[in-house]
User: Which sequence fits this backbone?
């Protein structure tokens, strides 16, 4: 598989704090998920790939371009779409006006073509009816969809989405997954999320980050497989020092050592993820 | 009107291809007026319908340009640039109001000092001449950057990021400030040459702010220069006894020279405005 | 941009809404409603306008102008004044006339039916259905109309069927107003004669 995005030994520090500690990874076409607890460096990595932040060290190659070079960086920006973690907006603008503004930033200078693209992306995220609504009157989920629409302008070959499902209700999240799945068929999508269900449902590959490094890079099935032999199901709750929780069927699911009276359970993506996180897992579960 | 009988497909086809008697055409049309089902049975090509709808949607759904954008358009600015500039945070009402108020206040102070005569040792135009050159700096501080522009992060990932956005907005802010201040200049008491002595300092200070902004964030750069300028005016006034020494013809020449020298510098270093620009000299090992 | 929008959201419209509901939604600023109206009415409008103007680009322009006008003036439609289709048609035919005037064309773009009519398709091929049709819609009038010459029939069609004024009919047919008036008078006289 020819990688469309490759990152080698990327480093970044803010002051004395090392946020990225040399992760190396390769992404190909399709949807790749980026999992990790808060502070693992996901957003920093995405910002660097989206060219909004420069790394301190390491090499990047995205869509055949090197963002360290100014001309190539501008060309890369023409081909990428970015949904930041906290997308901002001008509250007094309408949905259409704000999307049109981003379209101009993406160099869609001709009015007819620009309006056509704006309408197209608004239709993709189901906001066509709200084109004339002021942004400040939109709900959180709608604003998220608006930001996603802006990322889709210009039909980018690389989509970088930072926690795109935050604020979406389950129905919207399903629609979002269908949309991203379709987009992933013909381009490279990298999305970061806290939700392992998003990864399991959507991603062909998953990267787990912890402490500024990539601790896993493979398929969701592979991530689940790392938990083989360490997932247990029991009727009684185990000792409080174990990592466990109650499942929907009333039983208790434990990760790690076998508690008394437990039977092996089928490992899932979430189990592999939590086991990889180790000590941080208790805070995340 | 008979609503139970419907046009057979063959008849519709003859109608649409023009192979129908004129009288029958009239009949078909009268029937169509009353029968929704037959109206919807008229065939069409999907692409024709979609293309037609897109043209209509564009005519109907186009947002009315904002007032600022319309004014800019009237001045001959290309439409996409006008829409871009109209979104500049500083060109929002807040800054424009502040500038207008400040200029008005400065004119008022000038007239007040002038009319009270020799009781004051301060030149009537001093307040105006001190304040006028720093108005563009305040605008530039408010026009770009993560703290003042909510859309900054999104913008930083687009081709317009960095110097293109910043310099375009800075230019717009400068022009606005100059126009507003220039309108007030004839209202000032005193010789016209002196009243216009703010222009070159304004240009020089703006160029310096931009040059410094290649090193530090624009708000910091602007703040530093506003403070420096104010202190310079006050101290030179105190030291030499002539409050307007910084506006003398000799000083004006310096400002002009500084502006001319700084502009190429800003142009050369403009990559530094881009947050994605690496901050150190990397060997070109990345050319693989 | 609409100067005034009602504060509450109108009920959602879909492909099953009727024309009156869609027009009410258009008044409220819903572009989706206009799109459905376009989908429903543009095809037959094209067919009907094409019978009056042979230039397909002018017809498309007229359709575009029509729906833009519907968007602007939807509040003028009153359900009591009949079917929405008829109201839309009155807009459409006037837009066609404007388009014709703008393009400054002469006779060559109007009345294509007269050119397309093949000699064989006269009364001989009138099927039983056609006969029923003519009889149903116009009764004896249909037969009488068929006996009029094309020029007179076109004049009657423009003023009576399409509801145009004499001036508008003149633009549509590409003849002076006086000629239209004369033709309508002669046509009516002939029809009276046929039907008497």
Assistant:
């Amino acid at each position: 598989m020819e990688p469309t995005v490759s990152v080698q030994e990327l480093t970044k520090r803010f002051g004395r704090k090392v946020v990225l500690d040399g992760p190396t990874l390769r992404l190909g076409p399709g949807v790749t998920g980026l999992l990790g607890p808060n502070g693992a460096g996901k957003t920093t990595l995405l910002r660097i790939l989206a060219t909004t932040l420069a790394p301190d060290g390491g090499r990047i190659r995205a869509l055949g371009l090197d963002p360290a070079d100014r001309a190539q960086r501008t060309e890369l920006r023409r081909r990428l779409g970015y949904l930041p973690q906290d997308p901002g907006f001008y509250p007094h603008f309408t949905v259409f006006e704000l999307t049109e503004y981003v379209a101009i930033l993406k160099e869609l200078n001709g009015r007819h073509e620009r309006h056509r693209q704006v309408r197209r992306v608004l239709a993709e995220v189901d906001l066509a009816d709200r084109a004339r609504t002021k942004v400040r009157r939109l709900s959180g989920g709608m604003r998220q969809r608006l930001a996603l629409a802006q990322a889709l302008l210009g039909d980018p070959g690389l989509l970088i989405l930072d926690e795109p499902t935050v604020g979406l209700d389950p129905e919207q999240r399903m629609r979002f997954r269908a949309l991203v799945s379709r987009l992933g068929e013909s381009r490279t999508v990298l999305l970061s999320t806290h939700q392992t269900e998003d990864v399991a449902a959507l991603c062909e590959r998953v990267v787990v980050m912890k402490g500024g490094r990539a601790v896993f890079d493979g398929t969701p099935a592979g991530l689940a497989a790392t938990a083989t032999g360490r997932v247990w199901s029991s009727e009684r709750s185990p000792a409080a020092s174990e990592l466990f929780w109650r499942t929907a069927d009333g039983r208790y699911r434990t990760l790690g050592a076998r508690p008394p009276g437990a039977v092996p359970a089928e490992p899932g993506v979430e189990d592999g993820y939590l086991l990889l996180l180790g000590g941080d897992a208790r805070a995340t579960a | 009107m008979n609503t139970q009988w419907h046009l057979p497909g063959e008849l519709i086809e003859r109608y649409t291809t023009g192979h129908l008697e004129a009288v029958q055409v009239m009949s078909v049309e009268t029937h169509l007026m009353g029968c929704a089902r037959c109206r919807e049975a008229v065939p069409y090509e999907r692409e024709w319908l979609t293309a037609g709808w897109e043209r209509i949607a564009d005519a109907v759904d186009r947002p009315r340009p904002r007032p600022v954008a319309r004014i800019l358009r009237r001045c001959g600015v290309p439409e996409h640039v006008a829409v871009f500039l109209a979104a500049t945070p500083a060109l929002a009402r807040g800054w424009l109001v502040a500038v207008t108020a400040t200029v008005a206040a400065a004119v008022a102070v000038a007239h007040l000092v002038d009319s009270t005569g020799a009781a004051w040792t301060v030149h009537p135009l001093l307040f105006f001449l001190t304040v006028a050159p720093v108005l563009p700096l305040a605008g530039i501080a408010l026009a770009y950057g993560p703290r003042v522009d909510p859309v900054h992060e999104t913008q930083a990932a687009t081709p317009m990021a960095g110097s293109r956005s910043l310099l375009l907005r800075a230019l717009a802010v400068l022009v606005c400030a100059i126009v507003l201040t220039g309108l007030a200049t004839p209202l000032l008491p005193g010789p016209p040459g002196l009243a216009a002595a703010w222009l070159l300092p304004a240009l020089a200070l703006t160029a310096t702010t931009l040059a410094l902004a290649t090193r530090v964030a624009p708000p910091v750069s602007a703040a530093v220069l506003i403070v420096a300028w104010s202190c310079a005016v006050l101290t030179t006034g105190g030291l030499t006894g002539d409050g307007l020494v910084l506006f003398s013809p000799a000083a004006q020449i310096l400002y002009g020279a500084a502006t001319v020298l700084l502009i190429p510098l800003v142009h050369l270093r403009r990559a530094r405005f881009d947050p994605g620009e690496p901050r150190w000299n990397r060997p070109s090992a990345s050319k693989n | 941009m609409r100067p005034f929008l009602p504060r509450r959201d109108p009920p959602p419209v879909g492909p099953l809404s009727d024309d009156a509901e869609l027009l009410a939604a258009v008044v409220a600023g819903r572009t989706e409603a206009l799109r459905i109206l376009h989908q429903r009415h543009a095809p037959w409008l094209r067919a009907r306008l094409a019978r009056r103007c042979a230039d397909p680009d002018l017809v498309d322009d007229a359709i575009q102008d029509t729906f833009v006008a519907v968007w602007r003036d939807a509040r003028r439609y009153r359900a009591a004044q009949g079917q929405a289709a008829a109201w839309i048609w009155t807009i459409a035919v006037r837009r066609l006339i404007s388009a014709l005037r703008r393009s400054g064309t002469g006779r060559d773009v109007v009345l294509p039916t007269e050119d397309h009519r093949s000699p064989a398709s006269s009364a001989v091929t009138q099927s039983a259905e056609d006969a029923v049709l003519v009889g149903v819609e116009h009764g004896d009038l249909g037969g009488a109309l068929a006996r009029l010459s094309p020029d007179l029939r076109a004049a009657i069609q423009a003023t009576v069927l399409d509801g145009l004024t004499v001036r508008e009919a003149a633009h549509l047919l590409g003849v002076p107003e006086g000629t239209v008036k004369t033709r309508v008078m002669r046509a009516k006289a002939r029809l009276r004669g046929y039907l008497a």
User: Anything to note?
Assistant: The two ends of chain C are 56 Å apart (CA to CA). DSSP finds ten helices and no strands in chain C.
